[in-house]
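BUG: 3D viewer hangs when loading the predicted structure for this chain

Environment: internal workstation, default settings.
Expected: structure renders.
Actual: progress bar stalls at 90%.

Input used:
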Amino acid sequence: MLQRVPPAAVIEGSKFDLVAGQRFDRASFSQFVRRAGYVEEGVADDPGEVVVRDGVIDIYPAGAPGPMRIVLSDKDEVEELRGFDRISQLTESSLDRVILGPATEAILTNADLNGAVPTSGTMEHVLGRLYEKMPSVVEVLGDAIIHLAPGAETRVERYFSIIEDARQARGHSGKTDNGSARSLYLSRAEWDRYAQGMAVHSLNLEPEDSQPAESFASGAGKSVGRLVQECAKQGQTIVLTGTGKSVEALSRRLAKATCATLQHVDTWQAAISAEPGSLLKLPCTLEQGFVDRRNNIVVIAAPQNSVTNNARLFLAEPELQIGDVVVHEEHGVGVLKDVQSLYINGVARDAARLDYRDSGSLLVPMEDFGKLWRYGSEAQTVTLDRLHTQAWGKKREKIAQDIASTARHLSKIAKEREASRSETFSPPRTSYTAFTRRFPYAETSDQSEAINSVLSDLSSGRPMNRLICGDVGFGKTEVALRAAAAVALAGGQVVVIAPTTVLARQHFATFEQRFAGSGISVGMLSRLVKAGEAKQVKAELAEGSLRIVVATQAVLAKDVRFARLALLIVDEEHRFGLRQKRAMAALAPSLHVLAMSATPIPRTLQSAMVGIQEVSLLMTPPRRRMPVRTTLLAFDSASVRIALMREFRRGGQSFVVVPRIEDITAVEARLRQIVPELAIRVAHGKMPVAALDEAVVSFAAGEGDILLATNIIENGLDVPRANTMFVWRADLFGLAQLHQLRGRVGRSGTQGAATFLTDENTKLSEEARLRLSTLVENDRLGSGLSISMRDFDLRGGGDLAGEDQAGHIKAIGIGLYQKLLADAVVKHRTPMKDAEEQTFLNFGVSGGIPANYVSDPAVRLHLYAKLSRASSPKALADLEEEFEDRFGEPPQEVKLLFRRTRLKLAASRLGIAKFEAGPKALAITIKEKASLRVWASFAKAENAILEKNRLLFEASRAADNEPLYFFETMVASAQKRCKPGIRKRTRN
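C-alpha cells produced before the viewer hung:
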C-alpha cells in the first residue's frame, strides 16, 4: 500500500487476449512479449519465459499456476489453449480464453524497445526512469472500499521507519538514487490523507457457513458425486475450483453425475450471477471447499496438484544444451557446438558438431545421437579428448573393468538384500491412528505417498533401505515420526541419529512431544547429556524399556547395546562419512534404514539412479511457504544495515553466518558498528557445550536480534521469527551447506531473504562462481534436489564400492557411467542375457525433426536421443504423444522417423541385425542367435532366397518402391507367428 505502482493505463495496455478459434497476430504477440518483460528460452518452465515456434508457442504467464501452450492452425488461428506441466511439458488442462499480463513492473514502450530509456539498475530506479508519475494503490482502486486489519497502523509506522532508515543508510554510504526513488513510496502526509477514508475492521468469515475440509478437499469417490446431485436438486450453484489434471477429471465426473453442462467463469462475481443450479468451474486454487449460504453456492476444491513424485523422472538424464560438454561413446569427451542440417542426396539430415582437443571436430549423424551423453561439467574445467587416438579406447576399457567390479559388488548387495529377512512391523491400528492425529497439518500428497511406502517396507519382511529426499521444511521429519511410531508401537526399538548436538536436541524435543501420552519413552545420547543420564539411557536401551533414542554419533559407542533394535533413521545423511554409515549398519543385523536429506550426496544419488536404494521425493511445499529470495553481492554496509533493520522493525530475527571461527571477532565488530542498536548473540563449535546450547536455544526462543554463528546452525535449527540471513564469504562454503543454511529462514510463512556476501577485494574462482550461481538460480521451493544434481555435475558421483568421491564420472560423465553401470549390473545378474543390439537400417528413407517444427537445436538433439534410447513400444508411444502435445501435429518427416524407430525396436527384439534395400533386391540379415521361430517365419516368406544368415527378396516386392513398408509388413508377420522360443546357439 505504501509503494507506488506503474500507471494503471500502462498495465491495462500491456495485456494480450487469446481466444480459441480467433486469429493470432504474430507481430503483435512478438511486440507484447518484448514490452512485457518475457524472456525467450528453449523451454518455458519458469514464470516469464516464452518459447516461440511456428505452430506451437509455450508461455509461462507471470502469476499463473503453470505454463500454457498456444496451438496454432495453418491459417494462424488459435486452435487450442492448453495448460501443461512445467517438468514433463505434457498437457494437463484445456482453456477457452486466456489473458496474458506483463511479467515485469518495468513495462516498456515502443521507444523504450529501441533503447531510449536505460533498463539497468535496481527495479526501483528503473521504474523511476520509465514513469514520470506513478499512482498509489489507493488511486488505482478508485471507489473500492478498503478495510484495514487490526494493528495496521503499527505496521505502517514500522514500514515508514524502514524506508527512512534505508534512505539514511544510502546517504551515509555516499550512494545517490539516479531515478526518482524518493517518489516510489508515499509520504507520511499522503498516507494520512488516504487513511482517513479507511476503517479498521476484523473480517467476519461466518464460520457456521463453512464446511469441514474433509467434505470437499478430496474430490474423489462417489460421496462427492452424491453431494453434488443433492445440491443440484436444491437449486444450489456448484463451483468447482482448482487447476491441472485433478480438476479436469473431477469436472468430468461431476458433469456426468449432474447431467449438467460445465460452464467456465473467471470471477467470483460471475459465479454469483450464474443461474441457480449451475455447474461452474473457477480456475483458482483453494485449500478447502465451503458453502456460501447467502448466495446459495457450494464450492468444491479439487485436490491441489503436486509435482509428479517419480524419482526416476527427477533423476533422469538432463537435457543437452548447446555449449555443454558431452561424451561420445566411441570418441570421448568433447563440446557440443551446434546442430547442423546437412543435405545428403537432396534430403536434409540433422547432425551434431562436436569440438575436441587440438581443434578436432566431429559430425555425429542423428542415427548416433543416442551415443551422446551429457558429461555433467563446465567446458572451462574439463580436459577434452583428442580424436583419432587410442587414449579414449584405453580409458574406457579400464573404466569398463572397474565398472564390472562395481557391478559385481552391487549385485552381491542386491542378492544379499533379496535373501535377507527382517522383522516385520505392523503397528496396532488404534494407537497408530491416535498418533497420526497429533500431526497439526494436512499431509501433502508426497508425504502420504512416502509414508505409505515406508509402512509397506516395514511390513514386507525385507530390510528397508529408503531415502526420503525433500527440501528444507517439506515434511521429512513427519515421515520419520510415522516410521518410528510404526516400529515402536509394535515393540521394536528405533535410533534417530543426527550430525550435530543442536539438531539432535531439536529432534529429541519434537519426538518427546509427539510421543507424549502414547506409552512410548524417548531418550537422548549426545555430549549435552550428563554422564549419569547417559548411563541410565544405555541401561534402558539394553533392557528394552526405552523404545526410541535420539542421538549423535555417541550412539555408535561400543558400550551401547539394544534389546530389539529394528529401525535406524539417519537425518542429513550427507553429513556422515562412509565409515560412520558402516558403523550404523553394524548396530543390528537386518536393520531397517530410513535416510533423510534435502541435498543427498552424489554417491547416494547414484545408488538411487541405478536402483540400489529406494527413493521417495517430497516435492510439494507446505501451504503458505514462500521461496527464500537469494542474492549474491559484494559486502556493502548500507545494504546490510537496511536488511537487518528491516527485519528488526517487523519483529523478526536475523542470522549472520561466517565460514571460520576466527572470522567471528572481526565480523562482530563490524556488525556492532553497522547496527549498534541490535543485540548480537554468538554461537560456534569451540564454545563450551552448555554455552553453545544456551546461545542457540535462547535465540530460538526469541532472545537477541542477530545470531552470529558458523555453519553449526545449518542443520535442523528452527527459529520461526528468523527471516533474514547474510552469509559472509559464501565462496568458502559448499553447495549443500549453503542450501541448508538458506533453509533456516522464512519457515513461518513470512518471505525469507538470504544474501551471499563475497569479499570485494577477493576475485572469485570459476568453481566458486558456478557454485554460488547454482544457489541463486535454484531459489524456488523444492530446489534441493536440483542443487544435488548440480553438485553431481561439479563433483562426480563417487565410487559406490569405495570412498573415492570423484569416481569415474570425472572421466566419462554421469549419463554414460549410469548406462554402463546399469548394463553391467543387468549382465551380472542375468549372465545368459545378451545385450540387445539395435538393428541397422540402410534403405534411403530417414525422416527427421525439421527446424520449423522444433526450432531449438538442443531440444531437437535431446528428442533424437530420447528416440534412440526408447526401449519399449510404450515408451515410443508416450514419446509420440509428447511430440504432438508439445509441438503440434507432426509433419511427414517426424512420422517417418517414428516408423523407422518402431521398426528398429521390433526388429531388434526379433534378432534381426540389418535391413537393406537396393535397386535390385531387399535384404534381411538375421543374427545367428535369433530364435528358431524367427528363422522359420522369414524363411517361409514367398520367394525368399536364403544365403547363410541373410534373406534376399526381389526389389519389386516393395510396394510403390517403399522398402520401409515392406520391412514393416515382414516384421509384423513375424511377430504374429513368433512367441518366445528356443534360441539357436552356435558352439564354441
